[in-house]
């Protein structure tokens, strides 16, 4: 059983979480009307063996969305962060550069 | 029958007697015995019949690796098949039966299968299924007979009278195995104050130490170590506990057999407990299994592992034979030989190695034993029990080089070296490597950073090595541990890799079993090889070797060795198979625990549950919820009750519990912006105190959910979702906010459990509301809300209709729900108010053509539901771009229609729609989603999706239920069957 180190709740069993998949895809800007861009975002995913950055939600806990780096072959978890702090950090970096 | 209990010795409590039954015969035992030791002491040699050939089988080992001595434990509902007699702790009142023999294992009429054995070898089923007899009456006959004859114990169909527990456990260090290495590891870790769990499958601590002669120096070490461990509060010792599975995240599955050592558990105690152990670190001190040798008739009762013979002698005081042949390819069997000679047995040791270890051989011969070097065992003789053995000189490769000599023996003890018990490590997708020096597969250290090893599992050469390894694994900085002088060689020193003596044609002498539990012989492996099975994994499945309940603990390495020989490869090149949980069989009841029947999953109840039950509601399951289905009067059926309830709402007034609706608070300056993005329709114009119906899509443009959202004040909105969509919608919003809309100043909070909701519907609903809340509430205009009071309780009233009648939804704090509900029932009495259930609610909404769960099927678009015009074209929303995909806009897509059914039988939900005339083929034109009797229309009606709907309005279609094989004719109409202008709800 995978155990995730939720930044809010600590180490918890995978049964408390829901999985959503690839966290490297970014939702296009809502103003974009090109269907291809949206189709890529919704449907196209890699299925790598090895390192994978993915979304999990702590549905049975704090309900935070998490960004987890997991090895799909070994289930080794390398990191588990709050999605909102990752994105807020990205936004700050973008603003300052 | 030469096995017997010695007058003294053993680690059993001879002061007390235990009485057990095997096949109806009384078996005496002492506390500390296993069923196997007691059966041996009683001279019971045939314990079971084999899987395919019904060959007599006896006790082969003294542990979990036992392939032969499988019994059915208990009687009636407590019978448990395939229990290993070798690990079954003796208790007073134990009842066991031998398996797979009729009338019993000693006189088994099915042994005739043995005569068929040339025909039921490797791949028998595969070949027969595709062979010339397939499907013939002959095959059907044989199949039935062979299936009945082949097998092990029978499962019972009675429900289990025992209860089982589940628990979670956490520790810093999990030590698996309480032999010398495990005890040492647990003690070292325990002394450091770490939280330690020490799990041992045996009922006694000590592991291999229990097989050493009693009163040896090791006993003193064992008792002081165990005493100190028991005294440490941070150390939990779990005896009778098997760690059966190793999972990701250092999680382990274990089963503690709390009450398997009594005939019947106390009525308030769980028989077994399933532990989910999360460990920071694990020490695997699981020991090793002795490997058998392969020779003709090596499965006969009277052939045993050398280590098992020693265990029965030293631990249980049972001498398994008087005239013993020991066959070995390594040093470790000499300890058994010496102990047997000292116990008074005649011992001939047949060492396959050309040069024997001189000090050991001298010690044996001077004690009175015989030692033959360069000899192997060719075959055993005797049917029900061995009477003799043929030994033969062998060369380095195991080829017989001289004539076989037949000698009389009543016990053959074999040792082919040791196979580390690395199953738990292997379960973590680890591949062991073959170590030529130790002649076995070993785990690779450090591949799993949080798992380390100590003792025989990594071929510790001797006892002090095992103890030192344990101390280091337990966290000792150096080898700061008490040394114990080695009393006997612990490991298979100087193993010569030779497991089967072959004749000149490279065949064994007779029927030689590799996997005894599955009746797989060397001949089967050879045949599989001849047929081209070269991969280990293929050969395993084709011959089924290693696939019995023992998972090949004894057979795997010998099968691999034979494969390597046949393919002229080395053992490492041949590879190994992967072990999977469980290491030893686990009772399904333990895995289930209490999670069965109504406790299979959690049930959600609304705050009005008690009222519903008190008032005779028949409840129904709606996902995790229990909801009132209908409230029968007298002996009304479901059909009678829901028709009455629905008609009553249209005529007078009804009250329905809608607390299961999802309720989400959306709060903050950007709340309206979020709603604009979530819903297809616009929210900027919604004024405080107003409500609006909305539909939301998924990112791919398919409808996700619908419901009304109320603007409570400038920045506060209360969104409602469908009952089943509540969780999905909440996660969807949270995901958007966390990953792309993080700039929005808005918070969402689920308040589904905090608020109860009830719908007051019907022409008289305004009068009832006026009676409880006054004129201002009753004066609410459609799609408006107001705060109000009912009997002094604060409520919020929304004017909103799902039924199509004049209706109000009343929201109230959950704790006040029953007071408000009761007040409405009381105030409604003069207006003939009646509660109604989900079935009538469904009828009312189908009459109005409102979509619900069956229409929101994850495939339908907004347009499919006839609400295409609702979508705003002035703003982007989730799914707005992909909803425009050509396929989703195809005018021929099935769209929501109403169906008026002809005749006295309704359409079935899921029925397929076909044109009235024409062929019944293909996928049809559409399908039925929801169906009901309509009291308002006085006929059966249905909703469905139909292709080419606009042109088909007014035409007739057939609705065919292929499962129930019924066909009804239906006229296609608008889904708004009843009051399409909405005059009643806006009254
Ligand atoms: Zn959490």
Average pLDDT taken over every residue of chain A? 92
Order of helices and strands of chain A: EEEHEEEH
Query: How is the largest sheet of chain A built, in terms of strand order?
Result: 3-4-5-6
For the sheet with most strands of chain B, the description reads: 7 strands, mixed
The secondary structure category of chain A is alpha+beta
Shape of chain A: globular
Query: What does the largest sheet of chain A look like?
Result: 4 strands, antiparallel
Beta-strand share of residues of chain A: 25-35%
Helix content of chain B: 10-25%
Q: By CATH's scheme, which homologous superfamily of the largest domain in chain B applies?
A: FAD/NAD(P)-binding domain
Ligands present:
zinc ion
CATH architecture of chain A: 2-Layer Sandwich
Annotation, overall tally of beta strands of chain A: 6
* Architecture per CATH nomenclature, i.e. the level-2 architecture of the largest domain in chain B: 3-Layer(bba) Sandwich
Number of domains in the coordinates of chain A? Answer: 1
Rg of chain B is 38 Å
Give me the Rg of chain A, rounded.
15 Å
How many domains is the backbone of chain B divided into? 7
Summarize the structure.
Chain A is an alpha+beta fold and 97 residues long. Chain A is built from two helices and six strands. Chain A has a four-stranded antiparallel β-sheet with strand order 3-4-5-6. Chain A has a two-stranded antiparallel sheet with strand order 1-2.
């Amino acid at each position: 059983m995978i155990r995730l180190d939720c930044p809010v709740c600590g180490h918890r069993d995978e049964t408390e979480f829901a999985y959503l998949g690839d966290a490297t895809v970014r939702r296009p800007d809502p103003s974009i009307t090109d269907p291809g861009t949206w189709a890529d975002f919704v449907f196209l995913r890699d299925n790598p063996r090895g390192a994978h950055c993915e979304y999990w939600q702590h549905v049975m806990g704090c309900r935070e969305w998490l960004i987890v780096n997991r090895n799909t072959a070994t289930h080794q978890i390398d990191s588990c962060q709050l999605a909102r702090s990752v994105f807020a950090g990205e936004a700050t970096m973008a603003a300052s550069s | 029958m030469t096995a017997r209990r010695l007058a003294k010795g053993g680690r059993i409590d001879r002061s007390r007697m235990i009485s057990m039954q095997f096949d109806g015969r009384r078996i005496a035992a002492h506390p500390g015995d296993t069923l196997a030791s007691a059966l041996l002491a009683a001279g019971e040699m045939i314990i079971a019949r084999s899987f395919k050939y019904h060959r007599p089988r006896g006790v082969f080992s003294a542990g979990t690796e036992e392939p032969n001595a499988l019994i059915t434990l208990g009687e009636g509902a407590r019978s448990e098949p395939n229990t290993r007699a070798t690990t079954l702790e003796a208790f007073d009142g134990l009842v066991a039966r031998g398996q797979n023999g009729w009338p019993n294992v000693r006189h088994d009429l099915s042994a005739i299968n043995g005569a068929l054995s040339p025909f039921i070898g490797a791949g028998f089923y595969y070949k027969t299924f595709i062979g010339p007899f397939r499907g013939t009456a002959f095959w059907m006959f044989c199949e039935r007979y062979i299936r009945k004859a082949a097998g092990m114990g029978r499962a019972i169909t009675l429900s289990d009278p025992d209860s089982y527990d589940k628990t979670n456990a956490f520790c810093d260090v999990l030590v698996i195995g309480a032999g010398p290495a495990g005890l040492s590891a647990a003690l070292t870790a325990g002394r450091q104050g770490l939280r330690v769990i020490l799990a041992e499958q045996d009922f006694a601590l000590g592991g291999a130490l229990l097989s050493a002669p009693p009163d040896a120096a090791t006993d003193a070490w064992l008792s002081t170590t165990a005493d100190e461990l028991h005294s440490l509060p941070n150390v939990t010792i779990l005896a009778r506990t098997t760690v059966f599975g190793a999972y990701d995240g250092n999680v382990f599955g274990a089963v503690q057999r709390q009450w398997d050592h009594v005939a019947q558990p106390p009525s308030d105690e769980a028989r077994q407990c399933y532990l989910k152990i999360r460990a920071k670190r694990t020490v695997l001190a699981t020991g090793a299994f002795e490997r058998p040798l392969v020779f003709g008739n090596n499965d006969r009762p009277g052939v045993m592992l050398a280590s098992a013979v020693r265990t029965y002698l030293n631990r249980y005081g049972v001498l398994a034979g008087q005239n013993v042949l020991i066959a070995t390819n390594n040093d470790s069997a000499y300890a058994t030989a010496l102990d047997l000679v000292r116990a008074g047995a005649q011992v001939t040791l047949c060492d396959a190695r050309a040069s024997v270890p001189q000090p050991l051989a001298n010690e044996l011969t001077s004690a009175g034993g015989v030692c033959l070097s360069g000899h192997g065992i060719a075959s055993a003789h005797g049917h029900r029990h061995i009477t003799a053995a043929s030994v033969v000189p062998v060369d380095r490769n195991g080829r017989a080089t001289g004539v076989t000599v037949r000698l009389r023996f009543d016990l053959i003890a074999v040792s082919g070296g040791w196979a580390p018990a690395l199953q738990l490590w292997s379960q973590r997708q680890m591949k062991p490597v073959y170590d030529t020096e130790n002649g076995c597969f070993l785990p690779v250290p450090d591949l799993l950073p949080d798992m380390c090893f100590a003792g025989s599992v990594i071929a510790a050469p001797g006892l002090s090595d095992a103890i030192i390894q344990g101390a280091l694994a337990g966290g000792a900085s150096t080898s700061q541990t008490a040394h114990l002088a080695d009393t006997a060689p612990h490991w298979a020193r100087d193993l010569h890799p030779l497991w089967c003596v072959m004749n000149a044609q490279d065949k064994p002498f007779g029927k030689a079993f590799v996997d005894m539990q599955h009746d797989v012989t060397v001949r089967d492996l050879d045949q599989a090889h001849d047929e081209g099975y070269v991969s280990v994994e293929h050969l395993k499945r084709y011959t089924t070797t290693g696939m019995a309940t023992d998972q090949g603990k004894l057979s795997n390495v010998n099968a691999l060795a034979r494969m390597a020989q046949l393919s002229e490869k080395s053992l490492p090149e041949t590879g190994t198979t992967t072990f999977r949980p469980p290491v030893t069989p686990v009772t399904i009841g333990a895995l289930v625990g209490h999670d069965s029947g109504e406790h299979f999953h959690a049930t959600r109840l609304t705050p009005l549950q008690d009222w519903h039950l008190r008032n005779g509601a028949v409840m129904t399951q709606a996902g995790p919820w229990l909801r009132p289905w209908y409230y029968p009067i007298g002996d009304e059926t479901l059909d009678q009750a829901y028709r009455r309830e629905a008609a009553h709402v249209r005529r007078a007034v009804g009250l329905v519990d809608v607390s299961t609706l999802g309720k989400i608070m959306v709060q903050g300056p950007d709340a309206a912006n979020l709603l604009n993005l979530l819903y297809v329709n616009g929210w900027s114009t919604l004024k405080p105190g107003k409500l609006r119906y909305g539909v939301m899509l998924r990112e791919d443009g398919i409808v996700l959910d619908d419901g009304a959202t109320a603007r409570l004040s400038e920045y506060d909105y209360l969104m409602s979702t469908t009952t089943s969509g509540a969780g999905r919608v909440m996660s969807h919003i949270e995901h958007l906010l966390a990953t792309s809309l993080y700039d929005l100043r808005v918070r969402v909070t689920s308040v589904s459990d905090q608020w109860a909701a009830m719908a007051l519907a019907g022409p008289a609903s305004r009068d009832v509301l006026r009676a409880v809340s006054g004129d201002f509430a009753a004066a609410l205009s459609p799609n408006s809300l107001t705060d109000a009071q009912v009997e002094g309780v604060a409520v919020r009233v929304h004017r909103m209709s799902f039924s199509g009648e004049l209706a109000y939804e009343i929201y109230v704090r959950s704790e006040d729900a029953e007071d408000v509900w009761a007040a409405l029932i009381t105030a409604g009495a003069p207006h003939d108010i009646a509660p109604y259930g989900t079935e009538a609610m469904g009828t009312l909404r189908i009459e109005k053509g409102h979509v619900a769960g069956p229409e929101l099927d994850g495939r339908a678009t907004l347009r499919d539901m006839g609400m295409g015009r609702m979508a705003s074209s002035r703003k982007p929303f989730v799914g707005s771009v992909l909803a425009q995909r050509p396929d989703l806009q195809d005018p021929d897509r099935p769209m929501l229609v109403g169906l008026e059914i002809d005749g006295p039988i309704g359409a079935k939900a899921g029925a397929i729609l076909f044109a009235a005339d024409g062929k019944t083929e293909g996928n049809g034109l559409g399908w039925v989603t929801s169906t009901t009797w309509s009291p308002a229309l006085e006929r059966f009606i249905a909703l469905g999706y139909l292709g080419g709907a606009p042109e088909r309005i007014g035409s007739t279609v057939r609705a065919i239920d292929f499962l129930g094989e019924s066909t009804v004719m239906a006229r296609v109409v608008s889904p708004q069957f009843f009051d399409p202008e909405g005059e009643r709800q806006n009254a």
